[in-house]
Amino acid sequence: MKTGKPLIAAVAALALSATGALAQQDTARVGFIYVGPVGDHGWSYQHDQGRQAVEAAFGDKVETTFVESVPESDAERAIEQFARTGHDIVFTTSFGFMEPTLAVAARYPDVKFEHATGYKRADNVATYAAKFHEGRYIIGQIAARMSESGIIGYVGAFPIPEVIAGINAFMLGAQSIDPEIELRVVWVNSWYDPAREADAATALLDQGVDVITQHTDSPAPLQAAADRGALGFGQASDMERFAPDAQLTSIIDNWNDYYVQRVQAVLDGTWESGDVWGGLDSGMVEMAAYENMPEDVKALAETTEAAIASGEMHPFTCPVFMQDGSEVPCEGDGVLSDGQILGMSFYVQGIDAQLPN
């Protein structure tokens, strides 16, 4: 298991700030709610790798259970079932699970809940997410270097800030290599729908796109690119085995350390609500091997990855401009603030598309 020191420090800070009023316990029941199947080989698959890491770390001290393919519209029922059946902590792993998690948490104050990618918390609800946009800046640079047509494509799930920030980081990375690069975006309004994802990728390929990335959960867009002799990127986990000649790299979500540390806090009686947002520096975001590219492109990607991880480079370094050419107020120290990124609701200049409402 890869250990990220900054992530350990962030999670430890939550434990150290606890009041000590919670009792230690010898065992724990841990539940996971997934929006897709664990076999999606993307988002839900990677969260389930974290669940398995918990089992490996604690053995018979923990009992883990999960329910997969839970529609966001039906999440409250699934979450409450875990709360009612003696689970000590429940991880709900999709943005659309936010309000259902809060609703159930209000009814079960003695159960601890953790919501992935959300922004609302309560005394018994913590939040956690990863800085996926850091990886997307890197793959934007790669895409611009590898594209022969000068047209790159993006398959998006839902137009929420996390996805929009990823698209913008991808574009800014590409523009740092080729200021005239064109980006086409197709939305599928689903996290996991292989058929629709493949159709979206095909539509992009028909428009002259020759490098495709995605913020959806199946390997379908990458496989569609491979079928047409194009290139692409994996999402959430390493999808190289599905398109070994087409995948350039993949942004890998590593939840293992976080899940282990939060379950340990439950056992220790030190768990409390808080928020963690980890990136390349913490190991919560990782890059798969850089493949199917010349050595100079690989070297560029490795240099950018190291610079972002060290803090030397930031995907949203000011000035940043919106589509209409207006400058985004710079609320960070020479960069957009975390709050601006987490609430992003605009396309950057150069994206010739309308952002859905």
Characterize the structure shown:
This protein has 357 residues and is α/β, with parallel strands linked by helices. The protein folds into two domains: 5-131 and 253-278, Rossmann fold (3-Layer(aba) Sandwich); 133-252 and 287-342, Response regulator (Rossmann fold, 3-Layer(aba) Sandwich), CATH 3.40.50.2300. It is 37% helix and 18% strand. The protein has eleven helices and twelve strands. The chain has helices spanning 5-16, 43-58, 75-84, 98-107, 132-146, 161-175, 194-206, 220-227, 256-268, 295-310, 338-342; strands at residues 28-33, 62-67, 89-92, 112-116, 125-130, 151-156, 182-187, 211-215, 231-236, 247-253, 275-278, 285-287. Helix 8 links the parallel strand 8 (211-215) and strand 9 (231-236). The protein starts with a helix and ends in a 15-residue tail after the last helix. The model is unreliable at 1-5 and 15-20 (pLDDT under 50).
- Helix/strand order, N-terminal first: HEHEHEHEEHEHEHEHEEHEEHH
Which superfamily, in CATH terms, is the homologous superfamily of the largest domain?
Response regulator
Number of strands: 12
What helical percentage do the residues reach? 25-40%
Q: What characteristic shape results from the CA principal axes?
A: globular
CATH class descriptor of the largest domain? Alpha Beta
User: Quick check: average pLDDT?
Assistant: 94
Please compute the radius of gyration using only Cα atoms. 20 Å
N→C terminal distance: 40 Å
Low-pLDDT windows of residues: 1-5, 15-20
CATH topology of the largest domain: Rossmann fold
Q: Can you name the CATH architecture of the largest domain?
A: 3-Layer(aba) Sandwich
Structural class, by secondary structure, is alpha/beta
Largest sheet composition: 6 strands, parallel
Largest sheet: spatial strand order: 2-1-3-4-5-11
